[in-house]
C-alpha cells in the first residue's frame, strides 16, 4: 500500500472527522469483493491492511473438516496438519493468496471506497447540523425556481421552499437573500433534504426573538401566534416582570423593532396584544384595534359573545372576517361579535348583574356576598327585588346598604 493512501487517510481523519479505523474496515471489505470479482475466486477470503508497515495481504479461509464437500471452502484435517499439526476439526486455516498484480486493483478500489465514505460522512455531518436547527430560522439565497418549488441555498445544502410555504404576495428572484424557517430535515439518497417555510408562525416567533432582547432573555414571553402570512398576524405577549411593558418592548422606540419584522415579511401587518389568563380581558385585547364594550363568557363550550359599539362592528369583524378569525385563533375561544344595538335588543347588554359586583361598582358599599342591588345606570339607588334578578344564595335577612 502506498504511503500516499496512508497520508490521505490520516488527513481525512483530521479534516472530515472520519475515523481511520472505519475507513480501513471499509477498504478491507471492498478489497474482498474486488478480489473475488477480478480473479474469479469464490472462496472465503480476508484482507489484512497493516497501516504501520503499509502492507496489504489476502488470506484464504478454509474450515477444517473430516469430509470435504467444497474444496474452495473446506480442507481436510490431514491436509491442515501438514501446515500446522495443532489444527483440529472446526478450526479455520488461513493461507496467503495475495496476487502479484493486486496492488493496482487495490489502489483503485481503495480510492473509490474512500471517496464514497467521505461523501457519506459529509452528508451525515450536514444532516446532523441541520436536524439540530429544525424549528429555527436561517439566512438563505434563492438559487433557482420552478413552477412548484423555490430552491434556497443555505451554504452547505440546498433547501426546498414549497409553493404552499411561500408568501403569496412575495416575488422571489435568483440571488435574493431571504430568511426562512426550517420545518423538516430528512435523509435522502443524494444527501439530507431540508424543507423551509416563509409562512410558518414559527418564523414570526423567531424574528421577534432576534429583534426583542426581552423575549430572548425570557423576560417577555410570546404566548400565542395567529398568522395569515403576507396579510396580517396577531401575537399575544406576557411579561414575567411587572415593571416591563410586554407590548411596548415588542413595538420598540417609535416602532422600530416591529417595523424591522414587518419589512422582513414584505409589509405584513402585525398586531401585538397583551395576554391575560382572564378570557374576558384576553378576548377584548385580541380584537384590537376595535373597542370592546363587554365580553360574555360561556365556559362550557369555550365560547364568548363580544359587544362592540355600532360604528366599530365592521372593524371588529375585519375584512372578510379576518380580525375576528385571527382573534379566535389567538385566544382559542369561539368569538361571536354583536353590535351594541343588537345586544341591547337581545337583552344581553348592558348586564344588570355581575358575578363580580366590586368590579362594576367601586363607589358603592357592597355586602360580603354581593346581595345589594343597584340600577344599571350606576346611580347607586337601590332596586326592589322584583325589579331585578337576585344573586344566588342571597341571605333573606340582609339589610340594604346606603350609598
Q: What does this entry look like structurally?
A:
Monomer. Binds directly to the core enzyme of the DNA-dependent RNA polymerase and to nascent RNA. Its main location: cytoplasm. The protein starts with a helix and ends in a 43-residue tail after the last helix. Helix 2 (20-39) packs across helix 4 and helix 5 runs antiparallel to helix 8. Helices cover 33% and strands 24% of the residues. Among the domains are: 3-129, NusA, N-terminal domain (N Utilization Substance Protein A, Chain:P, domain 4); 133-199, OB fold (Dihydrolipoamide Acetyltransferase, E2P) (Beta Barrel), CATH 2.40.50. The strands form 4 sheets. Strands 5-6-7-9-8 form a 5-stranded mixed barrel. Strands 1, 2, 3 and 4 form a 4-stranded mixed beta sheet that branches. Strands 10-11-12 form a 3-stranded mixed beta sheet, with helices on both faces. The chain is built from 13 helices and 15 strands. The protein has 403 residues and is α/β, with parallel strands linked by helices. The relative contact order is 0.06.
- Name of the CATH homologous superfamily of the domain at 3-129: NusA, N-terminal domain
The secondary-structure class comes to alpha/beta
> What's the N-to-C terminus distance?
105 Å
| Annotated CATH architecture of the domain at 3-129 | 2-Layer Sandwich
Order of helices and strands: HHEEEHEHEEEEEHHEEHHEHEEHHEHH
Radius of gyration: 38 Å
Dominant shape? elongated
Main pleated-sheet profile: 5 strands, mixed, barrel
Amino acid at each position: 500500500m502506498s504511503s500516499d493512501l496512508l497520508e490521505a487517510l490520516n488527513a481525512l481523519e483530521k479534516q472530515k472527522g472520519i475515523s481511520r479505523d472505519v475507513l480501513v474496515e471499509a477498504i478491507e471489505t471492498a478489497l474482498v469483493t474486488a478480489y473475488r470479482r477480478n480473479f474469479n475466486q469464490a472462496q472465503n477470503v480476508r484482507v489484512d491492511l497493516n497501516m504501520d508497515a503499509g502492507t496489504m495481504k489476502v488470506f484464504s479461509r478454509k474450515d477444517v473438516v473430516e469430509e470435504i464437500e467444497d474444496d474452495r471452502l473446506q480442507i481436510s484435517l490431514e491436509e491442515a496438519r501438514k501446515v500446522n499439526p495443532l489444527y483440529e476439526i472446526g478450526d479455520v486455516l488461513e493461507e496467503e493468496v495475495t496476487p502479484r498484480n493486486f496492488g493496482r486493483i487495490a489502489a483503485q478500489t481503495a480510492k473509490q471506497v474512500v471517496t464514497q465514505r467521505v461523501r457519506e460522512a459529509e452528508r451525515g455531518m450536514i444532516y446532523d447540523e441541520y436536524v439540530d436547527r429544525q424549528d429555527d430560522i436561517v439566512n438563505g439565497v434563492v438559487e433557482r425556481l420552478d413552477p412548484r418549488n423555490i430552491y434556497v441555498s443555505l451554504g452547505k445544502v440546498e433547501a426546498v421552499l414549497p409553493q404552499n410555504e411561500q408568501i403569496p404576495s412575495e416575488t422571489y428572484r435568483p440571488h435574493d437573500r431571504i430568511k426562512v424557517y426550517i420545518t423538516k430535515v430528512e435523509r435522502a439518497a443524494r444527501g439530507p433534504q431540508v424543507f423551509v417555510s416563509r409562512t410558518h408562525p414559527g418564523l414570526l416567533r423567531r424574528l421577534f426573538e432576534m429583534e426583542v432582547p426581552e423575549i430572548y432573555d425570557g423576560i417577555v414571553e410570546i404566548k400565542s401566534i395567529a398568522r395569515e402570512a403576507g396579510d396580517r398576524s396577531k401575537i399575544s405577549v406576557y411579561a414575567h416582570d411587572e415593571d416591563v411593558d410586554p407590548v411596548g418592548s415588542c413595538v420598540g422606540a417609535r416602532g422600530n423593532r416591529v417595523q424591522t419584522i414587518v419589512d422582513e415579511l414584505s409589509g405584513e401587518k402585525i398586531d401585538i396584544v397583551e395576554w391575560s389568563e382572564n378570557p374576558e380581558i384576553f378576548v377584548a385585547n385580541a380584537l384590537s384595534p376595535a373597542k370592546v364594550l363587554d365580553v360574555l363568557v360561556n365556559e362550557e363550550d369555550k365560547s364568548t359573545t363580544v359587544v362592540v359599539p355600532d360604528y366599530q362592528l365592521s372593524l371588529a369583524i375585519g375584512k372578510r372576517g379576518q380580525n375576528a378569525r385571527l382573534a379566535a385563533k389567538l385566544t382559542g375561544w369561539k368569538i361571536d361579535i354583536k353590535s351594541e344595538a343588537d345586544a341591547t335588543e337581545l337583552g344581553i347588554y348592558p348586564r344588570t348583574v355581575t358575578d363580580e359586583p366590586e368590579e362594576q361598582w367601586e363607589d358603592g358599599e357592597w355586602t360580603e356576598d354581593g346581595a345589594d342591588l343597584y340600577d344599571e345606570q350606576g346611580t347607586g339607588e337601590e332596586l326592589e327585588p322584583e325589579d331585578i334578578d337576585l344573586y344566588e344564595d342571597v341571605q333573606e335577612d340582609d339589610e340594604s346598604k346606603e350609598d
